[in-house]
Amino acid sequence: MIARCRRLFEPALREAVSVLHPWSARMAGFTLGWADADGRPYEGNAGKSVRPAIALLCAEAAGADPGSAVPAAVAVELVHAFSLVHDDIIDHDEQRRHRPALWKVYGTGPALLAGDALLALAVAQLARSGEAMTYLSSALVELVQGQTADMAFEGRPWRGPGAVTADEYTEMTLGKTGGLLGAAAATGVILGGRADLAARMWQMGRELGVAFQLADDILGIWGDPTVTGKPADSDLRRGKKTYPVLAALATDSVAARELATLLSTGATDDRSVRRAARLVEEAGGRAEAETLADRYLSSALDTMNACLPHATDLRTLCGSLIDRIH
Amino acid sequence: MIARCRRLFEPALREAVSVLHPWSARMAGFTLGWADADGRPYEGNAGKSVRPAIALLCAEAAGADPGSAVPAAVAVELVHAFSLVHDDIIDHDEQRRHRPALWKVYGTGPALLAGDALLALAVAQLARSGEAMTYLSSALVELVQGQTADMAFEGRPWRGPGAVTADEYTEMTLGKTGGLLGAAAATGVILGGRADLAARMWQMGRELGVAFQLADDILGIWGDPTVTGKPADSDLRRGKKTYPVLAALATDSVAARELATLLSTGATDDRSVRRAARLVEEAGGRAEAETLADRYLSSALDTMNACLPHATDLRTLCGSLIDRIH
Q1: Tell me, what's the ipTM?
Q2: Could you give the CA distance from residue B156 to residue B62 in angstroms, rounded to a whole number?
Q3: How far away is chain B from the Cα of A194, in angstroms, using its nearest Cα?
Q4: In this complex, is the C-beta atom of B187 within 8 Å of any C-beta atom belonging to chain A?
Q5: Does any CB of chain A come closer than 8 Å to the CB of residue B156?
Q6: A112 and B115 in contact (C-beta within 8 Å)?
Q7: Vertex A130, ends B136 and B175: CA angle to 5°?
Q8: Which of A236, A273, A323, B221 has its CA 20 to 30 A from that of B20?
Q9: Do the beta carbons of residue B51 and residue B77 sit within 8 Å?
Q10: Number of A–B residue contacts, CB under 8 Å
Q11: pLDDT tens digits for chain B (326 residues)?
């Protein structure tokens, strides 16, 4: 299904990128996964293409040719790529999808500018479609707001007064991850001729985004590095505030207190990080994240069933995003 | 005139920025010039507001209330602010308008993200106006392409095979500086109800942009630091390829050869930099830049006179951009 979607939008994605300066085009090819660092063709590192697939499958489920949503698919994939490139610079993450991050290969300045180029191209895809553009632009604002909130969480304490609450975290993910999934779904139905469904599909996508982010948080602690493409326990190691940890810390348990103490030391050795992961699980943080992910997914699927009753492929895709954690 | 324009668009600009996360809003206030680093109100550092003034005066010259172009004015000012924030990160420039650059005050990651936020807000201003959005989005693509070309120039030789030609440089400035001035003029007339003039005003703005950039290049070498807000001779000191230097090097003169040798040593001491500036002038680089700036300005003014014969304020504004060098 993803492969079918990819065949539909990838030619347009490559064409969009081809207008760039050769230097940016090479960086774009590397970050979009079809070229190595020297610009030679490269297979099998294109990411999951979740966002463009949602756009195309939404158009199809709305009764249109999925090809009608190609500009939306290309736009959301470009925004996603832009956000990963800038995120890796901001977080000093050196690896992305089993390869070095873009800034590690080409330098911070060129990578920053390549990210800007991807964003500019994304906007160009939907510039003529005012209705779709309002959703894409809302997603951009929400994405950046969510990333900023996420960054601001870093400076706050793990526990006690001023600690980040689970609700604040969920709100942040509605923007950081939900906005773009919402735009994928909304622009997909708009280009598929069902603008009347856009507002509900936006909401559906945002909820899906929360479920997706929580699944990522779980994989960021307990996922297999050979699958995730990131170093093991990387979120815990760099002290990132994620839902399972915040939910664990919010409990009044012995494990939560020990976890808070351990995290406050900032220890990043393997033993401490593994201990922290066990304490998050003992305090119920993992289970709570799973439950909440399932709840957001079901709410999204309810909306999808009501709006797009024949969306079999879309439902399968959405379910698969969360299945990874079960 | 600028003050009148500023009164028109600044409330909308402040309102646009007010939706941001408090952290981004503070960074935006600093970079847009109405707050100090701690978020306290601050006067007199708002930049020249050239782009928003062009949008408003174009709408007015098209026979509309200039207020009709406020969303365009806000959008182009936000894009401009975004580009300065990212440029300073890319170029490691530590000063901007007599104050530290945003990244020096808040760190690279937060500044990068604040730049992204400004761009996202810019797009949101015009999302509903498909016609205006196509010009804004073209300007974004051109801007980033121009910045990339400019960056790629850095790795090329000063003289001989592979050297950057004056034509390549002019082409780069059409994108880097021209695109956004073109968008200001085109979106101004569109929101002012004269979409039929948009394509010609886009072209007019792009030409104006080249003239403006050449004037900036001249000031970057011979300008007074107390006026430019940048360290003296900063372009020459960091070996930036600008029009006067490239034009000087392209001549077959003794001064050009000495200049090429001097630049190749990469010497950044005051004596070498002053000597380089004198050699650029001796080889005729400054005069050629002035002549070309005047030629682009006149072509822009011709288009303006043909399209908007009553644009007195707009003509005065455009002239003043170049007068700085005479």
Answers
A1: 0.95
A2: 44
A3: 18
A4: no
A5: no
A6: no
A7: 15
A8: A236
A9: yes
A10: 134
A11: 888 999 999 999 999 999 999 999 999 999 999 998 888 988 766 678 999 999 999 999 999 999 999 999 999 999 999 999 999 999 998 988 888 999 999 999 999 999 999 999 999 999 999 999 999 999 999 999 999 999 999 999 998 899 999 999 999 999 999 999 999 999 999 999 999 999 999 999 999 999 999 999 999 999 887 777 776 677 888 889 999 999 999 999 999 999 999 999 988 899 999 999 999 999 999 999 999 999 999 999 999 999 999 899 999 999 888 887 77
CA–CA gap between residue B35 and residue A82 (Å, rounded): 29
Q: What is the DSSP string of A59-100?
A: HHHTTS-GGGGHHHHHHHHHHHHHHHHHHHHHHT--EETTEE
Rg (CA), chain B: 20
- Count CA atoms within 13 Å of residue A96 on its CB side: 25
Q: Hey, what long-range contacts does A152-156 have (CB within 8 A, 24 or more apart)?
A: A152/B21, A152/B23, A153/A241, A154/A239, A154/A240, A154/A241, A156/A241
Q: What is the DSSP string of B122-156?
A: HHHHHTT-HHHHHHHHHHHHHHHHHHHHHHHHHTS
Mutate to test the interface with A, among B91, B116, B131, B134 (most CBs of A within 10 A): B116
pTM for the predicted model, two decimal places: 0.95
Q: Bridge-partner residues for A99, per DSSP? A: A96
CA proximity to B96, closest of B142, B27, B150, B146 = B27
A44 in helix, strand or coil? coil
For chain A, the C-alpha Rg in angstroms (whole number) is 20
